[in-house]
Amino acid sequence: MPNPPPPLAAALEDPSLQQIWKFFADGGFFMILLAICSLVAVAVILFKLLSLRRETVIPAALASKVDDFEARMKLANGDAVFREFDDGRSTLARLCAVASRNRGKSQAEITEAVQAAAREEIVHLHAGMIALDVVITVAPLLGLLGTASGLVVVFGGLGDSANHSAIALGIGRALNTTIVGLAISVPAVVAQGWFQRRIDTMAARLEVLLTRLAHALERAPRSAAARPSTPVQA
Fold it and tell me: Is position 80 within any domain?
């Protein structure tokens, strides 16, 4: 009695897997380009999911401290927060550090310095979005190009006696690349819209927090936690 085939060989003999392989093999060279597009899209989506985490951009604990920063300044309890700003572990912390380095100036001067730094941070938040936009545009076009080239081959091989079944089969195979191109583009469009909305929301939240911080730091002394001296009693 022959030995049973190993698991990998049994999987390769599965008719459903063979149909899937044939589906992609019929696409030819354009399927390779579409596979590259899909890998780029997956890599960018994973990168954005990590880079747009709340802890990376606007940590809740730090945002709460910035919200009531004016009260902390009145209590001369701002040194610990300034040290957290200087650590620069998040977008909010880095922008707050810029504001803290300009404390004692007018609110307009602090705001101008923060806005200059914020433009660079917003560019970092948008990192990868261009690649996702390219995939959204290119993937359907590659699919259509693959379909068009497949149709050229199908109709170019027709003779005087046309086999309608063969033509229909060839057209169906030629449409495989269009299906794959759209299948790549649709989730990429959804991801791009969600990421853009998240970036806009975080940018608006940063603007509110930094405006409050600039107001609190206006005309503040360079020594953040200088507690007012107690008058000496006679």
Answer: yes
